[in-house]
Amino acid sequence: MDRLLDTDQKQQLAAWNKRCATLWLKYFAIVFVPLTLLTMPFFQLFYYFLDVTGPLVSGELAYGQPGYYEYQAAKDWSLVVLAVLLVLIGAVFYLSNRWWKKAVRKLGLPPGGDPSKWNRWVFGKALNP
Fold it and tell me: What is the pTM of this model?
């Protein structure tokens, strides 16, 4: 009888591991890829913003000199795009974090697994007081 339970528990654990692997692939597609695709241009544009504001802040370009208005326009444009990218990164992070917590709750504990204290943030209560 115990052997039958062990076989059943092994099958349940194998199915749970398969669902867990699928969840990690979805995590990669839903969370990691969009955050990477938004973060890379953010840092590139941030360095561009620093390059543009450098001459304006250091005094190399003063009001009325040739190129001053182009640098100001580039600074303003890059600041607006940086703000939009920052809002998008925050929205993707917030929504993906909510999705991840719901998906892990739906996945549940492994069959016959040990509910440890770190699961408290997922399930909202102490499972093993």
Answer: 0.71
Q: How many domains does the chain have?
A: 1
55, 61 in Cβ contact below 8 A?
yes
* Helix residue ranges per DSSP H, the chain: 2-27, 33-58, 68-107, 120-123
Give me the chain's average pLDDT, please. Answer: 81
Q: Is residue 113 part of a domain?
A: yes
In a domain, 50, yes or no: yes
The domain of 10 spans: 2-123
CA distances from 102 to 33, 88, 96, 99, 112 (A): 19, 21, 10, 5, 21
Q: Is residue 128 part of a domain?
A: no
